[in-house]
User: What shape does this take?
Amino acid sequence: MSIFDDLQQAIIDGKSPLAKELTEKGLSEGLRPAEFFPNAIIPSMNEVGRRMRECEFFIPEVLIAARAARASTDILRPLLVGDEAVSSAGTVVCGTVKGDLHDIGKNIVAMMLESAGFEIVDLGVDVSPEKVVEAVRQHQANVVAMSALLTTTMVNMKAVIEALASAGLRDQVKVMVGGAPVTEAWARSIGADGYGKDASAAVETARSLLAA
Amino acid sequence: MTEKKNYRIVLQPTHAELTAPAGTSLRDLLFEQGVEFPCGGQGRCRGCRVRVHEGTTEINAAQRERLSAQELANGWRLACQCSVVDNLVIELRQWDAAILADDTAFSFVPREGLGAAVDLGTTTLVAQLVNLATGKVMAVRTALNAQARYGADIMSRLQFATSGGGQATLNHLIRQQIAGLIRQLILLAKVPGSDLRDVVLVGNTVMHHLFCGIDVEPLSHYPFESKELDLQTFRARDLEWDLSDRSVIRFLPCLGGFVGSDILAGILATKLGESRELTGLMDLGTNGEIVVGNRERLFCASTAAGPAFEGARISMGMRAATGAISQAEVKNERLVCHVLGNAAPQGLCGSGLVDVVAAGLEMGAIQESGRLANGAKEWMLAPPVVLTQNDIRELQLAKAAIAAGARILLERSGTSFADLKELYLAGAFGNYIRHASAQRIGLINLPSERIAPAGNTALLGAKLAMFSLDGEDGSYTQLRHRIEHVALKADTNFQDIFVEELTFPSSNHVHS
Assistant: This one.
């Protein structure tokens, strides 16, 4: 088994110290930091996503796997140089909408996207439309990803899309939405570009939106 | 198959008439009529005793243990231990005695007339008519909240209320429905409606606002706080109710956030605010409410458990009615399910769900992570009823919300589960849930002997309030000063603790 295989397994099993140790070992053996992403980090998070979709993994398993992935990427990211560092898959501004404080789903989405190579600007919870507009402008974001867990707050996703439009930024960013009460039909009705049924769908959705 | 013989059962004092096939347990029959079974129908307490005036019923060992020879000779039985084998006329001790059962510490000033106590729940309504001179319950009615068609849980109800004109619809609907219930109570008890003096309503903050006509918009988003929590007083004409103008209708005050007067009433009923020792009250429903404290200080919170405990969002979930698996246990390494109404299994209600998962953990059919063993997608309980992987996930979300809420509340009060002398469990679910199972799945981290089922504390508290209203108006200013509402949704640790509580405790962890 290669170090990459071992690292994949460590991430799936949620073993942070082991993931850290294997990353350091690989680097000391001369593996290039950028190689870790396509060979270990991304495939392991894809596997975590698959297990989540199939109900095999639940929130705790996903979170500890993501934490293990982060133990590895925290070492790798500062070492990326030149082209490697800027060749991120895209910049995503994410947050839980105004009036809503639920952030477990949003955090999983952020971690999934991050391990898939996206640059993440996490605005946290109870995020106003103005804050989203400001972050999109400042970070030249490609994607806005919004979460809501309450039927009473998901209406604020629409407010974000409207705010982006009136700031003249709507054409520059793709908007994707998700969260327990959000449906695909509803996402379409408010003019979102993409919808993820659960956090595991986020990476696919973001990729296909940017490819389009 | 031959048709089972049907028998006729008459309930006193309401004169309600029921028909039931031979073999139907009185527990199932009376539960649907609003009778409560404090020990969950296990024959461990005397809470469900009834007096059989006509007809025969069996006497088993549990009844000989709990009832004296004299009581048995006088026709007293434990309803939970009897099934229908004859036409019966039964007197319901519970409706008769709900207030007077408390005669040690509670004294009331008798006065003329009648009062009605109403527990206005998000899902169900219970109303009782009480003779204010004797404290006796004269009639009881239960109903599903008519607002439920506009959203089963509080958040979807709020969404309907805050979107164009919804609030007025809900306001009108609930006032009409409660007027109807009160009319039925008066008819049932065969008393003049003009004798009705007092109506006391209790319910959570959303129900309070929707009934009283207060804007619910502040409750629909962070920080989920309304400024108008106080006692609301109405005259019959304000509500367009067909009652005497002398009658006063009061909706008791809320405590903060979603925690309303049903919990205030629960504190009155369980005397939490008078206890020297640390005690607690938990009401498990779509919204779980928790109170802990003593006579000096009380802390309360509500936590959104979702509808899993009521059987909703469970693939074969149903309410606790005929055909529901309501209990389950492991016998000889096999799962044995109890089905309400002695009928063919149709689904799973909240208490059954908790039991089944606890049993699954014991049998190794469910892992501590919540995963079904051997990668199974579902578990056959009693054909055709299955438990799916996703059902377990729903239960994990619900129990983690409650367990995390309780942990934070105890931390806030500077205490822990170990310090909790007793935890009262309110509501129908609290009555039916098996305490050992609740502990096994990590819902309540307390041994069974420190958990006490408390019945409908909201209704009992509302009745107590009705009698003490003579002295004061029902605003409970002093008591409310000692109760602090903790906003769990605003607690930054909540989500972390919630995730920690998602898994099931390991078997050697379930504690002592």
